[in-house]
Amino acid sequence: MLDLAILGLLEERGDLHGYEIRKQLREGLGLLANVSFGSLYPALARLEAAGAVEATEALEPVEPPAAPVPPTGSLSGEWAVLRSRRRATRRGRGRRSRKVYRITDRGRSLFADLLTGQGAADDPRSFGLRLAFARHLPAPARLALLERRRLQLTERLAEVRTAGGQDALDVYARAVVDHMADALQHDIGWLDRLIETERSAATPGAALAPGATAAVGGGAR
Amino acid sequence: MLDLAILGLLEERGDLHGYEIRKQLREGLGLLANVSFGSLYPALARLEAAGAVEATEALEPVEPPAAPVPPTGSLSGEWAVLRSRRRATRRGRGRRSRKVYRITDRGRSLFADLLTGQGAADDPRSFGLRLAFARHLPAPARLALLERRRLQLTERLAEVRTAGGQDALDVYARAVVDHMADALQHDIGWLDRLIETERSAATPGAALAPGATAAVGGGAR
DNA sequence: GTCATCATGTAAGCCGTTACATGATTGC
DNA sequence: GCAATCATGTAACGGCTTACATGATGAC
Predict the structure, then answer these.
(1) Which residues is A87 bridged to in the sheet?
(2) What residue in B sits closest to A198 (Cα-Cα)?
(3) Residues of chain A under the 50 pLDDT cut
(4) Alpha-carbon gap, residue A171 to A155, rounded angstroms
(5) Is the CB of B19 under 7 A from strand D?
(6) Is a pLDDT exceeding 80 seen at residue B79?
(7) Is B103:B53 a contact under the CB 8 Å cutoff?
(8) B168: exposed, middle or buried (C-beta count within 10 Å: 0-12, 13-18, 19+)?
(9) Which residues pair with A53 in a beta bridge?
(10) Interatomic distance B19 CA / D1 C1' (Å)
(11) Lowest mean pLDDT: which of A45-59, B3-17, B49-63?
(12) Strand D nucleotides where any atom sits below 7 Å of a protein CB
């Protein structure tokens, strides 16, 4: 799951260093991938060892030195200039030795595997993450992803309903079970709309067929 | 989370052995607690060590001994007789040495602590489990549980909305974020109805007040 | 000169899983 | 006699978290 998020981000947003990866994951995908450093850095090391990413030590080619410093006469002014020069010299870096990571071809292939996620966990986060990166998937695989998820949820719904069928449950347990069923149906409905959108996008003839316009528009409630 | 499920089950359904605990958890609470033996048995041992449960070796009052064994002369025959005698001797059990667990007073106190779950994880399973056992909680604690959960969800909703506010998201990422917000609102609405029901149950005067009947009825959609 | 932020990493621990080992009992 | 089910446990591993260690840089 973490690997998928890292690779996806590197693929979409270009080369990044660890700290930045975490920041962007938190900001962009919020709850789907709010990862801690304690898992992020080992994950990056693992991916590098596997050849899925390359790290450059971020000793990037230094910019040509800035124009000579006009003395200001004030000490704090000189200081400020020195600081800014140092910043200018290491421009684009600003900070510590930052290891910048870039996704490799092997990484892209791994990303594709994780994205289809045949043997992946069926938790909502994992699915949400895969769907969030679904534009990197060919259309049929995308549809398959959605339908596999739909199948999982309907199976779980059946389970929940058999659990709810027994009447040994008190008010609170009943409320929980009922709400689980409700939420599952809500999710399934959402998937159905997504699937419908995918299907109509996959058959471009539909847009040309008479009367098809109504079916195409307004997919996402 | 596991401890809570075990203690709750032992409290509600009386004394049980490990195998049965797992069975009932799977059947009754389904997705909330489908636990594996690999975690269940260590958990029971832990709870026993902590004094939260007592185990009786299931050497329940033995039936009067069967008639003396007539020797058959064959070794396997003797064996078979020994086995069947053992079976007869331990009548009502039928199977292996089953350790039957019973919740203690310390266990009940621990259960109450876990149920209020002040420092517990905020994942849906954990909350669902606590709510499912909420009838063992005093009414104010129950209300507090619901309101704490509501607060968490509204905070997360705000997070999701700030994440969704940026327009760097493509169709799929957007769909995921939007649906997360949607599902959160759905959950919050459900909590609101539960809270409302709790509140009106907590103020018995309300039922007597004129015109209050409409507010009380039909809480749970 | 001190505090917040940026930046990378290690160590320990939590909470669960699957797989393995063992064995009794029942039903066919 | 063989498979399915009942019953208890151990071992190894997974994937994540928190806490800790370290240090540079920037802002005031």
Answers:
(1) none
(2) B172
(3) 60-95, 215-221
(4) 25
(5) yes
(6) no
(7) yes
(8) exposed
(9) A103
(10) 27
(11) B49-63
(12) 6-12, 15-20, 23-27
